[in-house]
Each structure stands twice: as C-alpha cells, then as structure tokens.
Amino acid sequence: MENYYTINQVATMTGLTARTIRNYLKSGLVSGEKINGIWMFSAEEFCAMLSNPAIKPSIQAKSNAVIYDFIADDRKKVNKICTVLDLCAEDNEAEEISQFFCNTINSYPDAGDLSFKFEKHGRNVRVILAGTEETDMEILNRYYNS
What is the rounded distance in angstroms from the CA atom of residue 40 to the CA atom of residue 30? Predict the structure, then answer.
C-alpha cells in the first residue's frame, strides 16, 4: 500500500500551516485526495508540492527560519541541537526517509519543542531537526540504526 501524508504531517515537514495547505488545495496549487473525510497526500503529490514554483519559496523560507531561529535564540534553558542532514537518495528512498522522520516525530508525545523540515532537491533530500539534545540524538540514532 502506498504511503500517504495528512495535512498535519505535510505542515510539519514544510513549516506551512494546515490552513495554508487547505488554501492551496482550494486554489488548485496542490492536489490531494480525501480518504475517509481526511485530506491525504501521496508521495508524488507531496513531491509535486515541494517543487511547485509558487510554493517552493515559502517552504524554503520556513526551513531557513528553523536554523536562523535556533541560532538567534541565546536564552536556551536546556542543551539543544540543530542538525541538517543532506542525503543523496533515489526516488523511493526519499519517500522512505520522509515517512521515517514523519512517523518517528509523530510518535513522540512531547514533540512540541522539536522543529522538523523536509526538502527534496532532485535526488537529494534535506532534513532539518532542531530540539533538545536528547530528542534529536534519539531520532538520529533510530534513523541510522533502522
């Protein structure tokens, strides 16, 4: 069965709001399908969204903001880490990578302090994680040990 992403998962990966994604659906900028009353996006639809020239600058700005906000925050009360992974991936690997990080992050009950962005550039994918030292390292260890 093909993997699908919910609006909230797409919002988490892109930094866009769920409302913005719904507006893109309404205007026809992106496509998805309703499954059991919930908007879902296939990997192909998600990749098309990432490469859409009308949407790509917004996603890029949100991704950069994660890094800039991390650097600008000079009042951290706990140890934090920001990780940028640039991975060379075949098409099916890009889907697996995005699905892994999406599922893993959604499984954390206390992921409120975790920022996550996913970008696809041709055969390369970029994953940006920013959060507590422990959470980032747990997620990275799970990724590299899977």
Answer: 11
